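Tutorial, part two.
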Amino acid sequence: MHQTILIYDFGSQYTQLIARRIREMNVYCEILPWNSIGEKTPNCMGVILSGSPFSVRDKTSPKPDLSGIKGKLPLLGICYGAQLLAQTYGGEVKASNTREYGRSMIENGSSDGIMEGINYPTQVWMSHGDSISRLPVNSTRICSTDAVEFAGFQFVGEHTYGVQFHPEVYHSVDGMRILKNFVENCSGCEGDWTPGVFVDECVEDLTEKIGNDRVILGLSGGVDSSVAAMLLHKAIGDRLHCIFVDNGLLRKDEFQHVLDSYQHMGLNIKGVDASARFYKALEGKTDPEEKRKAIGKVFIDVFDEESSKVTNASWLGQGTIYPDVIESISATGGPSQTIKSHHNVGGLPDYMKLKVVEPLRALFKDEVRRIGRAMNMDLTLLERHPFPGPGLGIRILGEVTPEKVRILQEADHIFIQGLKDHDYYHTVWQAGVILLPVQSVGVMGDERTYENAVALRAVTSTDGMTADWCHLPYDFLAEISNKIINQVKGINRVTYDISSKPPATIEWE
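Running the prediction step on this input gives:
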């Protein structure tokens, strides 16, 4: 059993980022719903209370009993967690005159506990509508800002802390130092959870869980499904049956390329061309959620048919990772806010006889890549950009047709190849082209055109939870625009998306 930090989720979209920062320290952590506070977990070294969309002033907001934790284990409350500690133990929380969101500078800070080694003033990220107006009993201030007098506090004689800001967010310059102080110095964690250890334990767990059964896994050619396949292959060998479905929404020539790329990995893999079925299911659908659900249904139907061809197939393997889960439903059954549904998240229909196994469900994208490196997988495969499960179906705004797919595949190929040719591919986290439901007037030669517009999308990120638009050079964008307009029949206008996540998402649908 590994030393563990427990993170209790009150519904914040940042909760997963807390976990990611802790795992960067090679410390194991688990995210649990707030209503499980009080349940015992072996080897728990410390506890973190997350932020929340709720206000502690609301009568219906979560208010669990903290008596089994406070003063008995190191405890850190972040944003809502800090306000919960303050209100529960004699402090006061009031609505702020203005919403405190974005960058702020903390000063007048302590030099020990979680604030040890911090050079003041230092930038932090605020995101709250309430503020602590009076500290809880037997506590002292550890930092403040111009707008927030009690930006952080500590209970005297305890490793119990509260901070109004979010140390887990990258905009908090010394946030990692603060979390490291809590996890290592206050909680005593030594960092014994490494990629190699994860591989060994995951393979052991898969071997025990699956037994002598057979597993069907959907391979996409992406990082997630590939790493999931190798973990399952290590656990059960040739009892893993990989299927690659051509949904007609892949990138240009990707179906054959993916099949070829797995030949050297020793996997059982079968290619299935179901593109006509997907196109049929998408006819007349323009709503993003309807398209996702239609794609997901056909995907499951195809796998149900293919599973019946494999004797004793009992499991469906999937490459689901944390961002998929947190943007669909809470990863832990807690109250996290839903952003959108994912085709491989949320369970399977009753008629499908396969159980689900998801080796990567608790990992972020960068963690998945580290696991792949620990298994000596091909770096070319591991460093591929993420690609959405529904494929180009959610990069074609409006109804999906084979002709629109053709246009988008050609444009996307030019953009991605251009990134590789100019050595920008590995500085961009994810890139693609969006086909807009807009036609505009253009001039080609002496003729008037009325054709499609596309948007180029390129972002930098580490985990997909937040992302900034990538500042690609104008000359490069001009070259790509010129190539797309000249070489792809049906496009006469190219734009560049300069919105970040949040408030936008990486994909347009």
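The chain has 13 helices and 18 strands. In part three we will examine how such features are distributed along the chain.
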